[in-house]
Amino acid sequence: MNLHNLKPAEGSVKKEKKRVGRGQGSGKGATSTRGNKGAQARAGYERKIGHQGGQMPIQRTSPKFGFKNINRKEYKGINLKSLQFIAEKYNLTAIDPQVLADYGLISKKALIKILGNGSLTLKLEVKAHAFSKSAQQAIEALDGTVIKI
């Protein structure tokens, strides 16, 4: 051990936070390391999203295409195998949006479309906002009822 390789114990010396705006003598007074004037020198300054320093922003130069249909109806698809599973597990004969919401398959306000994936072996009364042709045929083949809400 020599004088040139002495070090304090690890963790004993903490790095102090830079204290700005505490007078000229500190070396970080006056402008508090923010430079001179302008928006960046002010408190609460936050650069806007997409700002490119005066250059035309990329979202304005890139071409736009397509449109958003405001009349679109977004359906949550529920397959026949899911209906079969729920009906067997909870001994149900009728399935409606409230039942599906209670068992966590959909949110309360969701529009439902019954899809034909899987097989159905139980006679069910199914209420939904829409049905695929294959799902409707599968339900009606077992003398079940299809009710559109």
Overview of this protein structure:
By secondary structure, the chain is α/β, with parallel strands linked by helices. 20% of the residues lie in helices and 15% in strands. The strands form two sheets. A three-stranded parallel sheet has the order 1-3-5. It has a three-stranded parallel sheet with strand order 2-4-6. The longest helix is centred in the middle third of the chain and has 11 residues, at 80-90. The protein is elongated. The N and C termini lie far apart (86 Å). The mean pLDDT is 91.
Features:
149 residues, alpha/beta, three-stranded parallel β-sheet, 4 helices, 15% strand
| Structural class category | alpha/beta
Major β-sheet, in short? 3 strands, parallel
The total beta strand count reads 6
Low-confidence stretches: none
Strand order of the largest sheet: 1-3-5
The proportion of strand residues reads 5-15%
Q: Mean pLDDT, rounded to whole units?
A: 91
Order of helices and strands: HEHEHEEEHE
- Outline type: elongated
What order do the helices and strands come in, and which of them pair?
Blueprint: H1 58-61, E1 75-79, H2 80-90, E2 94-95, H3 97-102, E3 111-115, E4 125-128, E5 130-131, H4 133-141, E6 145-148
Parallel strand pairs: 1-3, 2-4, 3-5, 4-6
Give a short synopsis of this structure.
With 149 residues, the chain is an alpha/beta fold. Helix content is 20%, strand content 15%. It has helices spanning 58-61, 80-90, 97-102, 133-141, and strands at 75-79, 94-95, 111-115, 125-128, 130-131, 145-148.
